[in-house]
């Protein structure tokens, strides 16, 4: 069958990405993926994507980011592909015949090249950071396959905004003095996510010493590698000159400038910095071409396209520059492209076709991002007047001169102002620090001043409006940019300006959260431009947990039930432009946007049933506190109490059997024929790839996992008191001694005969056993505190003065400090009935529901089923005359879940410690722990039992059930 010619790509690359994702996920789930990658990559992927690390962090990669990272690493490290056509051959060869093969055979696709398609606002930059770290650490530490990795990176931005965003991400934001503060960089602020502790100093040091700005490329000396950040104009010098229309006389001047780079008499013209900058001007590409290896990362990579002129396809100048840089590097040149819109468009109207980049490896599209709640939900604001009146939506012109806005444009702006006013009034009621913004995209720079004047006539002040003028490429001169960028990128924090007027400058890289209304006055129908405009408002504004349920219901109503939203939280309103109808209709057909034909008649509808709830006037009557035992300084835990005699040996497999799974000397390789996969020729490669330093690093990881895993759970930060006072150096010595003399009930040298590998074998449980044993002993040591002499901090629940909740899923109750308490809208019936029942029972004096993301102090330390220390937040605290009940309400099917049992065991130990305190430190009550099942509650309640009788029964049952049980029996 002949191969189709010039058919383009259409959506075939998206099919490829789906097939690849299925294969990658299958191998990830069954463990094959991790078994095929380097030890460094294993460490990174385990830290990024597996428990307990994901449980013990404030933030994690979402599923789209995870998929992008896994797919890229799978192709590059597991399959070791060296070209785009090889990607298709290894994953789905049948798809090659649906495309133009001549396209895949081009020079620019004959390299390891991966395009990551992720919707705007879903965190492409985080994926970029992860892949950079993966490449660098493998290049630094992995002896095997070093040609697949690089320590040199070129980050290419399409314009000034994205360029500055990348500098912010790696160097930190500028302070008032114009100096960049590294502690504000992405890499530093989110180091707990990006970098495992053992690599943290290495990566932070590399970034701080190796970032090179565009004007420093080729001149700044770096240490162990390079992170060069530039905008695309570095690679566009020839095209720039042609576009400016230089004359032969100017060519002569250019030659003179090269020979005499500094003009006499200019200010500071003879400074060393000026001489250096001029000398190295134009040398950047030569410098990059001389590097032996390089990873090029293109941000907003839809700018990589082909210009079509008079039917002839010509490579744009900057792609030629990339080809030149890649020349002679072979597999040592890698290109990773990021874009929400990685496609070209051919034809128009019904014949318009999107041709996606052939090297797309993941497709995390806008629809998925919206349904997952990772970006705002989009609605189109339609007005009946717009649909019926024959209005013009282009500015009125006299010849080429723009003289005034058309009536249609005025109407769209007024509609946007009205929507913005509604949002402002309601949002600030619930959160005064939330300031919704409106973005107006003008058709050209001559229209923007008219829009500003019109807004002022509508009653807005000059401080309300931020106008950003740019040239036809969407660029702003550097001096002007320096004046506006601080105000622009901090716009979320302040009430004013509230309206941004721009042309093209903010079509990409403008990463703020509070754009809630977009008025697109441009008449262009280019899909890429329209998607970029929509993308400016997609980032979430309401990220707090208080609003998650309401936003989830919103998406369900809008996207599933096809109903109007109950509120406008994280909804992006686009004022309809008739020229965009086909674009909007396509989004509606895909289920990406909804249609809103009328503004809310009741402005309270904007927030739905979300309310703020404060303390009652007489809250002191119902006050409760949570006791926190703080150890005296002289009661520091001493490690002579911890010895290997307290640790149990590993008995699951004998040492000799484990040794069978470890090669005696080096790595085993084999050959495999490419087409029919015949395997032959096993052979060994001896490598001294583990040493004393590596073993010490393993000990450090164990210590860090045991002692630091509980420092952060969810969004909670534990700063109030020292959680554990442990000498980590001494702990490392004990672990080392345990491994060498007790772990396998015999002497064991981890550095002899590759013995170290036994500790890292997957699925044998050795490392898990070490973690569990150390955690158990440390946990037991916490009980050695003399609680009679302990200092107790009493944390009043009234410290949290305000809660946010949904009114329809809350109760007005008497015996609590707050005006209302909430319960989950999904399966929250048990909690609701429990609160109503104890509130009207005379034996209950007061109670509180513990909100873990608000009452961050009310927790109990426990050991998870996997041996890692974590924090447990019970559901309720209920006080009667003599007793204080720490209550966990659970559906009966969840009571036997292993981690629920672990929480139960830890809570029982904790209340024993509390009951040894002086009476005034425990509110004159005996404390009891209650694990209350749903059937127990309803069964006793329906038979007339009181609240105290139910709680006492459940407490006694819980205690007896666990009597004589080993606290650490898993």
UniProtKB/TrEMBL annotation:
GO terms for molecular function: helicase activity. Residues 422-600 form the Helicase C-terminal domain. Transmembrane segments: none annotated. PROSITE patterns: HELICASE_CTER (PS51194). InterPro entries: Helicase/UvrB_N (IPR006935), Helicase_C-like (IPR001650), Helicase_Restrict-Modif_Enz (IPR050742), P-loop_NTPase (IPR027417). Keywords: ATP-binding, Helicase, Hydrolase, Nucleotide-binding. This is DEAD/DEAH box helicase family protein.
């Amino acid at each position: 069958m002949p191969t189709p010619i010039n058919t383009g790509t259409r959506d075939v690359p998206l099919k490829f990405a789906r097939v690849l994702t299925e294969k990658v996920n299958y191998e990830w789930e069954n463990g094959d993926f991790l078994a095929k990658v380097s030890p460094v990559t294993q460490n990174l992927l385990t830290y990024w994507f597996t428990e307990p690390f994901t449980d013990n962090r404030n933030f994690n990669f979402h599923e789209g980011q995870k998929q992008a990272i896994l797919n890229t690493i799978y192709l590059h490290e597991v399959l070791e592909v060296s070209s785009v056509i090889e990607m298709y051959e290894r994953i789905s060869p049948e798809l090659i015949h649906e495309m133009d093969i001549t396209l895949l055979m081009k020079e620019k696709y004959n390299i390891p090249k991966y395009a990551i398609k992720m919707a705007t606002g879903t965190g492409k930059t985080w994926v970029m950071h992860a892949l950079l770290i993966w490449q660098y650490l493998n290049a630094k530490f992995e002896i095997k396959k070093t040609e697949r990795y690089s320590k040199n990176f070129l980050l290419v931005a399409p314009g000034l905004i994205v360029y500055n965003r990348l500098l912010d991400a790696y160097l930190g934001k500028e302070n008032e003095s114009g100096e960049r503060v590294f502690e504000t960089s992405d890499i530093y602020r989110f180091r707990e996510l990006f970098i495992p502790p053992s690599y943290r100093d290495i990566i932070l040091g590399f970034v701080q010493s190796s970032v090179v700005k565009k004007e420093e490329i080729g001149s700044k000396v770096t240490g162990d590698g390079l992170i060069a950040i530039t905008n695309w104009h570095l690679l566009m010098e020839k095209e720039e000159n042609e576009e400016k229309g230089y004359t032969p006389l100017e060519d002569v001047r250019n030659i003179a400038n090269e020979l005499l780079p500094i003009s006499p008499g200019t200010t500071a013209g003879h400074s060393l910095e000026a001489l250096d900058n001029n000398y190295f001007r134009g040398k950047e590409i030569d410098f990059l071409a001389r590097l032996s290896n390089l990873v090029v990362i293109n941000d907003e990579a839809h700018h990589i396209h082909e210009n079509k002129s008079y039917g002839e396809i010509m490579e744009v100048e900057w792609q030629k520059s990339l080809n030149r840089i890649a020349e002679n590097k072979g597999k040592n040149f890698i290109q990773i492209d990021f874009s929400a819109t990685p496609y070209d468009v051919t034809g128009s109207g019904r014949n318009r076709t999107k041709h996606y980049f052939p090297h797309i490896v993941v497709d995390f599209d806008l629809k998925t991002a919206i349904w997952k709640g990772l970006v705002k939900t989009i609605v189109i604001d339609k007005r009946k007047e717009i649909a019926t009146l024959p209005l013009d939506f282009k500015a009125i012109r006299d010849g080429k001169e723009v003289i005034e806005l058309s009536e249609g444009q005025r109407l769209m702006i007024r509609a946007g102002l009205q929507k913005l006013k509604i949002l402002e009034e309601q949002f600030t009621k619930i959160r005064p620090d939330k300031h919704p913004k409106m973005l107006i995209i003008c058709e050209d720079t001559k229209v923007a001043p008219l829009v500003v004047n019109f807004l002022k006539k509508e009653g807005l002040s000059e401080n309300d409006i931020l106008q950003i003028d740019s040239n036809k490429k969407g660029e702003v001169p550097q001096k002007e940019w320096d004046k506006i960028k601080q105000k622009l990128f901090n716009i979320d924090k302040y009430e004013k300006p509230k309206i941004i007027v721009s042309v093209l400058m903010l079509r990409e890289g403008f990463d703020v959260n509070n754009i809630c209304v977009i008025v697109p006055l441009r008449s262009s129908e280019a899909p890429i431009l329209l998607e970029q405009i929509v993308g400016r408002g997609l980032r979430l504004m309401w990220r707090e947990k208080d609003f998650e349920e309401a936003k989830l219901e919103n998406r369900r109503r809008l996207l599933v039930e096809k109903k109007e939203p109950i509120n406008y939280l994280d909804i992006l309103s686009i004022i309809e432009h008739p020229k965009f109808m086909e674009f909007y209709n396509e989004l509606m057909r895909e289920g990406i946007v909804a249609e809103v034909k009328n503004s809310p008649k009741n402005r309270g509808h904007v927030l739905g049933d979300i309310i703020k709830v404060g303390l009652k006037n007489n809250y002191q009557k119902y006050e409760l506190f949570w006791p926190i035992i703080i150890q005296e300084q002289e009661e520091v835990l001493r490690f002579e109490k911890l010895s290997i005699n307290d640790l149990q040996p590993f008995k699951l497999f004998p040492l000799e059997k484990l040794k069978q799974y470890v090669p005696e000397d080096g790595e085993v390789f084999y050959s495999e024929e490419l087409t029919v996969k015949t395997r032959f020729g096993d052979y060994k490669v001896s490598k001294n790839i583990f040493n004393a330093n590596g073993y010490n690093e393993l000990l450090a990881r164990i210590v860090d996992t045991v002692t630091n895993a509980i420092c952060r759970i969810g969004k909670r930060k534990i700063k109030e008191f020292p959680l554990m006072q442990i000498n980590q150096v001494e702990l490392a010595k004990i672990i080392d001694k345990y491994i060498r003399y007790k772990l396998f009930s015999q002497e064991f040298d981890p550095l002899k005969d590759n013995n170290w590998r036994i500790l890292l074998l997957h699925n044998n449980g050795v490392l898990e056993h070490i973690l569990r044993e150390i955690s158990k002993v440390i946990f037991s040591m916490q009980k050695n505190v003399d609680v009679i002499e302990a200092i107790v901090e009493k944390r009043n629940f009234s410290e949290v003065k305000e809660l946010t909740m949904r009114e329809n899923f809350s109760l007005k109750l008497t015996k609590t400090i707050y005006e209302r308490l909430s319960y989950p809208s999904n399966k929250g019936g048990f909690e609701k009935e429990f609160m109503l029942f104890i509130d009207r029972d005379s034996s209950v004096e007061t109670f509180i529901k513990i909100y873990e993301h608000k009452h961050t102090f009310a927790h109990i330390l426990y050991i998870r089923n996997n041996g890692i220390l974590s924090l447990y937040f019970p559901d309720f605290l209920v006080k009667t005359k003599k007793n204080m009940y720490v209550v966990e309400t659970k559906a009966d099917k969840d009571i036997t879940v292993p981690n629920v049992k672990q929480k139960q065991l830890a809570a029982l130990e904790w209340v024993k410690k509390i009951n040894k305190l002086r009476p005034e430190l425990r509110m004159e009550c005996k404390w009891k722990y209650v694990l209350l099942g749903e059937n127990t509650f309803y069964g006793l309640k329906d038979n007339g039992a009181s609240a105290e009788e139910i709680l006492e029964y459940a407490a006694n049952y819980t205690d007896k059930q666990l009597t004589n049980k080993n606290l650490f029996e898993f």
